[in-house]
Design a protein that fits this description.
Number of helices: 8
Distance between the termini: 25 Å
Strand content: 5-15%
Shape: globular
Number of strands: 4
Helix content: 40-55%
Structural class: alpha/beta
Radius of gyration: 19 Å
Length: 246
């Protein structure tokens, strides 16, 4: 073939970017869609911070904790042919009730950094990020031998009606150095591009926030490779929610 191009979205995006940075001589360019291009540690922090914030505002809704997911946890959204699981409904109902004073759902979204334009988007965003925590945390822990790749002992949380109470009451975790080093190595992009890379992201992505794009652009700038990067952010809600034309 005259050209070989890499393309990936979501988790596949970060895999494609790692290949593009590691073996540029084998490829002519890469399309990186809705990936956590700011690095795995930042994505884990985002997911974990959202979960501890949810547990603060909605205690006792979810069993376990951010890195302690009971093996019988059943979080299933509805499909065209199946009903949602009881836990999915319970979380959804808690979020819906939280629009009433003291507006816990809105406070949670602010602390967690969720982007939304409508109440429906907010609830969907919250269900998305909490769902990822419940479904995929064990996979992360399997890679780190059960060690914790997250440390929020010094994190200052803001966005609630009472930030002092929030920071006093939110769950704190001490990260394990080996686990944090592992997720940084597998994988934080270097930005040392040698082939053209185009990124694509939705502006209100609840799973992989669009701020990853700015961080990656900073890596590329530091490496003096800005001429090889073109970033595109589509104004839309959802994870990888692109049209074919986009």
């Amino acid at each position: 073939p005259r050209r070989v191009l890499l393309a990936g979205h979501s988790l596949g995006a970060i895999a494609a970017l790692q290949v593009a940075e590691s073996f540029p001589g084998q490829y002519d360019g890469a399309l990186i869609m809705c990936g956590f291009v700011g690095g795995t540690p930042r994505e884990i922090d985002y997911m974990a911070n959202a979960r501890v914030a949810f547990d603060y505002f909605f205690p006792d809704v979810i069993d376990g904790s951010v890195f302690e997911i009971p093996v019988d946890t059943d979080f299933r959204p509805p499909t065209a042919t199946t009903a949602p699981s009881a836990l999915f409904v319970e979380i959804q109902e808690a979020l819906a009730a939280g629009f009433a004073p003291p507006f816990k759902t809105i406070q949670f979204a602010s602390v967690a950094g969720l982007k939304w334009n409508t109440p429906q988007e907010l609830v969907t965003a919250a269900l998305s990020v909490i769902g990822f925590n419940l479904r995929y945390t064990q996979s992360v822990l399997d890679q780190t031998h059960g060690h914790i790749p997250f440390d929020n002992r010094k994190t200052v949380y803001t966005g609630s009606a009472d930030d002092a109470a929030l920071n006093e009451g939110i769950e704190r975790w001490t990260g394990d150095a080996d686990a944090m080093n592992y997720v940084a190595q597998y994988y934080t992009p270097t930005g040392a591009l040698q082939i053209p890379v185009q990124t694509l992201h939705t502006s209100r992505d609840p799973v992989v926030p669009a701020w990853h794009e700015d961080i990656f652009a900073g890596y590329v700038t530091d490496q003096g490779a800005t001429s090889l990067l073109e970033g595109n952010i589509v104004t839309a809600f959802g994870h990888c929610n692109f049209t074919d034309a986009q």
